[in-house]
Amino acid sequence: MDPDRQRIRDYLQVQAAKLSVQNLVDKVRTDQAQVRAAVESVPAARFHDRPAAEEWSANEVMAHVVEGGGHFGATIRAVLDGTGLPERADDSIRPEPPRRTAAEWWDQLERDRAALFERVERATGDEHLDVTWQHPFFGELNWREWLLFLRIHDLDHSRQLQAIAAASA
Questions:
Q1: Which ranges of the chain does DSSP label H, i.e. alpha helix?
Q2: Lowest mean pLDDT among 27-41, 78-92, 97-111, 154-168
Q3: How many CB atoms neighbour CB 36 within 10 A?
């Protein structure tokens, strides 16, 4: 694993083990707000436009954030509920994601996260930590580490949305 990936993996492991469940939720919730600010900064008329042929549109970024986050959240809930791991989600952009507005994507993200946070906040924090599943860059992570990963995922795609907004201005 390269040094940057190892640094992020170490952060996920150390912070996820150290922080309370409520602190983990609060971190994700706080940085999720950056997604909202970033997506709302993209002009509506340009929301489905790619800034360049090889780059994602804001619609594609939000499809990825919502669909990936929905899968991660469903997996975390399944682990906490003891129902096992669902199939691994593809972490790539779909060739034709649904065309939605920024508000529609944001509403879906909020609904998904509310369900996730509600379930996680009922956890004691030490259950099922032996259950891990593979992240393509950071290796095996448990549910607490995956929850904190949502923060990193949101921040990464917030920066991407900010760049799209700047290119669309």
A1: 3-18, 21-40, 58-81, 102-121, 143-168
A2: 78-92
A3: 18
